[in-house]
Design goal:
The protein has 22 helices and 18 strands. The protein has helices at 10-13, 39-49, 88-100, 104-117, 122-134, 138-148, 154-181, 190-205, 211-226, 230-242, 249-261, 265-278, 284-296, 300-313, 332-346, 350-363, 368-380, 384-397, 402-414, 418-431, 436-447, 567-571, and strands spanning 317-318, 328-329, 452-463, 472-481, 489-502, 505-520, 523-532, 536-547, 552-559, 576-588, 591-602, 607-621, 625-638, 650-667, 670-685, 689-703, 709-721, 724-738. A 16-stranded antiparallel β-barrel has the order 3-4-5-6-7-8-9-10-11-12-13-14-15-16-17-18. A two-stranded antiparallel sheet has the order 1-2. Helices cover 40% and strands 29% of the residues. With 739 residues, the chain is α+β, with helices and mostly antiparallel strands. Keywords: TPR repeat. Residues 465-728 form the PgaA membrane beta barrel domain. InterPro entries: PGA_export_porin_PgaA, PgaA_barrel, TPR-like_helical_dom_sf, TPR_rpt.
Amino acid sequence: MRTSCFRGRAARAVEGLDLSTVSRGDSGRVRDSAFYSLAPLALGLLSLLTPSAEAAERFPGGRLPAIDTPASAYGNDVRPGPRGQPNADDLAGIAERQRQQGHPATALRLAQRVLAYAPDNPQAIQTRISSLANLGAHRRADQLREQYRPDWPQATQERFHADVATAAIRDGTQEQARLERRHRYATSNLELVKSLETLNANLERFPAASEARQRTRVDRLIVLRQLNRFDAVIADYRALQRDSIVVPSYAKGAVGDAYLARRQPEVAAELYRNAIDANPQAPLSVRTGYYYALIESENYAAAGEVLAQMDIDTPIWRSRPNATASPVPNWERSEVDRLRVLDATYRHHEAAALEQARGLYRQAPRNTDVIDGLATAQRSRGWYEQAQATAELAAAYAPGDQATRLNIAENAQDLENFPRWQHTIEPLAAQFPTDSAIRRNRLEWQDRQHFSLEGQGSFGRSHGGNAVNGSQDGEYQLRLNSPWSEGGYRAYVEQSYRWGDYDEGTERHDREGGGVERQWLRRHWWAGLSGEHFSHDLGLELGWSQWLDDRWQYQLRTQTQSPETPLRAERDDLDGRLYQAQLTWRQNESREATLTLGALDISDGNLRSDAAADLTQRIQASAHHQTRLIGSLSAEHNSQSEADYYNPEDTRSMGLALEHDWLTWRRYNHAFTQNLTLGAASEWERGYGSAAGYDVTYGHTWQLTRTWSIHYGVGWGQHDYEGERERRWLGQFGFEGVL
């Protein structure tokens, strides 16, 4: 699952960047967590309003003299006033200097003392209003400004309006986070939308070159990003660059989020890195965004270093207020731990991811983010029923949670519960149209409503014998599928063609056919008719397949005009009736075994029975490489050994193959993978004894778009047939996609 970056879990686990994912591998990959950690942005905005400075020498620790003390207690520069109070103008001036030095709380208390005995002092009134604004009490400050209408310079008036707008952003961001925690998504953006309207009005009000207007343009980046208007963020950022306005580091994380959402991870990574370099204590959302940008850039080594540093810098507990107080939990630690689970999944370390997810669940069994992460880890191992049960638990705790609902949709997709998939993903997509993991999952649902096309073919050339394939041979199959109906039905038409050059001449066989199939709840049946030119030698194919649970699957199949019939038997107007049963055991994504039993009843009286077993074990996996070892055993018996086609009485084979896939390049929905297979076997044929067999294949797989892919390759092999050593070259090609 390569939950895109955004897997819809910032808080959820920043498709899950599916992300979701991620997400989402989402997966999209599950990767939207950078988009939902809102508290750090609020803190960044608040820091603009409350500048820090060293403790004032005049009032150590912010302690003021007692109210009834003489003027000299405030300093030698404060004159006595009437009735023994300090001079109002002197004390008001000190209050303003305290505010400008970064002590708005001290300034506010001094100004209020002045106003207690000099209520009309203009400096004290202005300092009181400005101090309230610096402390974030902008509503009260605005009320006092409207009441007193102080005679401020134009630049001060503009700064005040900008401060009010910044505070509204902070409050709107916190309100958005609060409502989303309560799953009240429909109203979560209302305050931010109002703050955006205020910013837009200020842009019209402030002069073009004023500091307040530049700050408003920067603040607008924050609001647009919180509203997921990523194109507008990028447009505004580029306009600021054209105007040579330096964007402060606290806003670069928001711009990085926008570039990441618009699939420009290299640009996003640079912005995140600049923000972190400027502030090593940058919010976690910026650091997780940097991690996802590196993942999206396929730079897994650097992403691992970033995650390791986050792991070091994010302790379980925050510092205690004092030695006797209980330790304060660091809630950011939970997000880092969940990100470590996703990171293991991205690198195809599914067992490690599941173990980590289980550990988090034991520590926080009612945390829905943790439960969703556990369900994702189970799904990555192919345990869809377990994942569904886990997701249902999260839904019981938080039925309206965005990440949980996406998890339910993805599980329904894997379990082929198509009505539930539709009824879950459609409302989600309507409610969260900008979430990349949700959007991708909905597109996958809509793919079922389109025609699809698939095809594959091969061409071979043999030397040293032509008992099986002839000196040259080839085949291809094409299939066109109709859209799926709501009940899980679809129709299909197909064509197949086989040919081979033998000593006695060229043999060709082509068939056209059609049928219907149904797929639902991990059950699959199909029925089709095919014949030469739809009329001659009509044959029936019936099949049934079912998963009994997460590990066991069986399949039954029969064909009355089987393409397994040898070409030279077809030349003699012989036909074969196939009966086949297959049992699959799948422990997890790394280990699988299959047993196949079959019988081909050829109309000349020959019964060809065979049995085959294979075991696949993944022996290596990383983000871009996977290696599998496949062991196989097979045996075949023919009841009549005398025939015009290759028909040994008994054959046996025991082989070992090594497969390696190298994901050489990937860019979201586009990827290039190299595939290499090396195989060797000990083969035995009655009357001729044992011989070694070898096969080598090399190919490429291109993911052209989200829905279209092609693959091709070449192969070489050596095998003995009837005592003759045959060397064969093979070329292959295939494609599939949605129309």
